Amino acid sequence: MSRPLLETVDLKTHYGGTRSLLSKPKPLVRAVDGVSLKIQPGEVLGLVGESGCGKSTIAKTLLGLERETEGAILLDGFDVGGRDPAEARKVRSDIQYVHQDPGAALDPWWRVGDTLHETLKIHGVSDRAERQARILEMLNAVGLNEGFLRRYPHELSGGQQRRIGLARTLSLRPRMVILDEPTSGLDLSVQATVLKLMLDLRATYDLTYLFISHDLSVVERLCDRVAIMYLGRIVEIGSADQVFSAPAHPYTRALLESAPTLTRQDSGQVIQGDPPSPTRRPEGCAFHPRCPMAQADCRQSVPQLAEVSDSQSVACPYAMPGQVRPAEAFAS
Amino acid sequence: MLMLKKFLRDVPAVLGLLIVVIAVILALFPGLLVDNVDRVNRGDILQRLKPPSPDLPFGSDDLGRNIFDRVVMGTRSALTISTLVVSLSMIVGVPLGLIAGYRSGWVSSAIMRVTDVFLAVPQLILAIAIAQILGRGATSAMIALAVTYWPFFTRTVYAETQKIRASLFVEALEGYGASTTRIMLFHILPNVAAPVIVRATVGMGFVILTAAVLGFLGVGAVPPAPDWGLQISEGRKYLPVHWWYATFPGLAILFLVLGFNLLGDGLRDLVDPRLRRS
What we know:
The complex is a heterodimer of chains A (332) and B (278).
Chain A: E1 6-15, E2 29-39, E3 44-48, H1 55-63, E4 70-75, E5 78-79, H2 85-91, E6 95-98, H3 112-122, H4 128-141, H5 158-170, E7 176-180, H6 188-205, E8 208-213, H7 216-222, E9 225-230, E10 233-239, H8 240-245, H9 250-258, E11 306-309, E12 312-314, H10 327-330
Chain B: H1 2-8, H2 11-28, H3 67-102, H4 106-120, H5 123-134, H6 138-165, H7 168-175, H8 180-217, H9 228-235, H10 244-271, H11 273-277
């Protein structure tokens, strides 16, 4: 295997937990609690999990907007972790981010063209002609024309806003792009064209994607590998084929079970209970209170990721890769 | 263009704008209506306390001065004071509000608590106290009013900044690595401009009124300046027989304050970004 473009080693980002003189003590939130990931150049890694499981915090930490509490971030093998936000953004300018709602990510008072120029200006491209050239190239790449530069954000449709968001980020010539819920709020036909555009752009510009989503069907279509997160930890990671056809972790199975499909008649098995608050993480395996196959020792020890096949690792000692809906696992 | 059309359909706002524009023209060129601008403080004692007539449209005062001329000349002093006070308050209030709204933690708390202290003291009383300490005169009245008015700008800007700070486009700019100064100056400031302009317009009316009160109470302008508050104060002694002495400066205050308030309300309806998007 080649050297990973981005690697995190036991990354932890915790919030709060400090006491200060004037304010109330804030509870400690372990938003990201020991994540080790390797992202190979050119691949699309999907990051899937329920709301509040730490997906967005991972993105912010990788970008440098949040400072990691522990662990290392390696970009191209170089340690780029443990820096102040401003410095971290500079060192990691190869990693860029496409916002969940690129329309709201544009200043409503600024024309789209001015926003695109500014983004480049922030990154030190001071020559106006060069900026203009880069912007036009990007607009072309995302299938828009020069006329859009003069528009205001509210004059764009949802799909156009995504395209502008992509152009804005790609104009910085990143090597890795974090896509945060890139298709939420789009109707299916627009979603399909945007996804296709993303794959085309990846091919054209040799990009690596970290694809954050909870839409399993989109992840299955787009991603090479998938990581499933639960409460700040990765519970299963593997090639998309493997994870979707033979999920091993009970949480992954439950997720796939509960995903609505067009062909299935009955509604799938739904995961019991709400995800626990990250301030009050259950002892041992965080999933055990909701797990249908929990054993006594699940309460005591935190399971580590272990390989179950060549392209799949699972953090559950009782996990068995298998088809979705194995009757014995969910018999109740 | 669309904005202009929308504004012109708002009759009270247009009326307010008209009053303000007329007042500004009169303040800049009082010669349009006053025959001899330099003689506005000189009276003819034989002509004292004459009722309104074609010659003296607003009558004359106890020193035989033409009240019409003095009311017109008062526009200049009223607008000068209010413009200076509002600009001074904005210079102090807007940056403080921006910083307090953008930063969190003790900086923000400290600024806002100080603001609260100023807001907690009744403005007029604070202004009178400050004007008393500084001594009588238009300058001390202006300083006193600016000291009492900046917290309103801080409050307005603070609230708006906090709202915009939480919006996605600021988060996105931070994600792209934009500096705090850039975000505050180029993105938050234009977005808070609308409420600030509205606040300033309404503030002009408020300051004119308060400056007149200070003049009336004898802590503002000094005689023989043609200040409206001062004129009412002097004319009060001749009520109700010589009613014109206090009435016309009073009406001038009423109309100009009304004009600014109508204009301010109209602008608020116009520039509110929530209405703009629809």
